[in-house]
Amino acid sequence: MADPRALADEGVCFPVGGDDRRSTSATGRAIFADSIRAVDPAIAARIEHTRDWRKGYIAPLRDIVLAAAQSTENALSISRHGLASAEQRFTFRREGHETGLREALAEWRTPGLGSVTVRGRAAREEELSIPYRGRRLFGDDLRRQIDAWLDSGIAEPSFGEALTLVLDNPDWLDLRDVDIALLGAGAEMAPTRSLLRWGARVHAIDLPAPAIWERLVGITRSTPGTLRIPIELAADGTPPFVVGGDVHPDDDPTICASAGTNLITRTPEIRTWLSEIDQPFVLGTYAYADGAEHVRLSMAGDAIVAALGAERDDLTLAFLATPTDVFAVPFECVEASREKWEHRGIGGLFQAPLRLARQFEPNYPTNYTTSAGQRIGLNDAIIPQQGPNYILAKRVQRWRALAARAEGTPVSLNLAPATRTRSVVRNRALAAAYAGAGRFGVEVFDPSTSTTLMAALLVHDLRNPDSPANPSTELINPMDLFARGANHGGLWRTAYAPRSVLGIAALLGMFESRA
């Protein structure tokens, strides 16, 4: 149960319950129950009777994904009902007035935000390169590294195919014809730097914090890209720093001091600001915060996606999926994992004695078959420390991706590997577990590597007409969108159920970090 005062700020809010409190647990439990009710009422009932949602959410989420994997109809029903429940429950609060999200975006349509455009001064990079372990990989070196990731089970073959196509078509990296709006442009996992290096026009949304904009503007100046920045307008409709005319586009300190806006509190104004883009554009959702704030950010982004999608037909959506979730995975992953399980302990200094002590569990103890007769695996890599709010925030994005694609909107949703982001490093237990993950066949990437890889996959999705992002590309199940091009860091193909080795990985990580 969350403190209602902490969640009753202006902007997107958790709903008030029957006890006059705003409960994150009650809200998440209700949304997940609503998502599955039409497909399997028994699962919905179990969710509603889960007393401690923070401890009991993992098993129902597995059940929901397994139900969605049974058919296209199930996957879309769960997605649409989950989105409808979330939209119905979350509210928008401003100056003491609280209303529904959809109503708020319809009610507050005044501009509120001006723009300043910053232009880069460098030449465009014409060849894909990836920063990796202190080096920058190009050409044949990058191709060999891609093969190494595939050989070790770090990523799926379709990941290698997509990156190879980008390497084979360097003209795809010319993004001077691409407009992309980034919700959370300064987020650690946002592809902002790469997109600017390739010449894109980026419409950037992030908080009004000068340090964020100093970094983004600095990046832009060293690239050929363009950065359109939101500026809060004064009461008379002018930017606050203007005196007798427009600010000079090269006055970076003045721009950064006034740049930015709040996605949670200025959701309607951001929708209006983005609607001013007068050509087709990509709308990417990358904003992140800890705990309940992440859900509020996700819901704000989804409200903008829904509002713009209802008004125009020239959007492409972009998201990143987290590997620490539940996925229906190809059966080849199950076979590779079981092969490793049969040969576990070989080459691992600490694994054999722990295996004898029955510390670990296999990654895929159960076989699953869909209603169409397709064999699949169910990969459960949820990390309890991340909590149900994290999963709800990411699940809303997964639901929106599937629902929008089914309605004809191109959607790029790529699975990013486990990454040493600041949020992970701040959590000592997670940081230690990531440090020891290599002992179990899992590679944890640096942020610079992950973001560049994901930016390259986004380019693939935008340029390749046969990519899964294209709604006309046939998928057996809509959730195959998550598996195509996946770089899971090895979590899908490791021998071990991730949670069963989490504690030992953390212990090993602590020892290795002190060595």
What strand order characterises the main sheet? 4-9-8-7-10-11-15
Overall 3D shape: globular
Q: Which class best fits the helix and strand makeup?
A: alpha/beta
Helix content: 40-55%
Low-confidence stretches: 1-7, 352-357
Number of strands: 15
End-to-end separation? 41 Å
Helical run tally: 21
Would you tell me the overall average pLDDT?
91
Structural features, described:
The chain is an alpha/beta fold and 515 residues long. The protein has 21 helices and 15 strands. It has helices at 24-37, 41-48, 53-56, 58-68, 72-89, 101-107, 139-151, 157-168, 192-197, 210-221, 252-258, 267-275, 292-311, 331-342, 351-356, 387-406, 422-426, 428-435, 447-463, 480-483, 498-514, and strands at residues 11-13, 91-94, 97-100, 113-119, 130-132, 135-137, 179-183, 201-205, 226-232, 281-285, 315-321, 326-330, 368-369, 375-380, 411-415. A 7-stranded mixed sheet has the order 4-9-8-7-10-11-15, with helices on both faces. The protein has a 3-stranded antiparallel sheet with strand order 1-2-3. Helix 6 packs across helix 12 and helix 13 (292-311) packs parallel to helix 16 (387-406). The radius of gyration is 23 Å and the shape is globular.
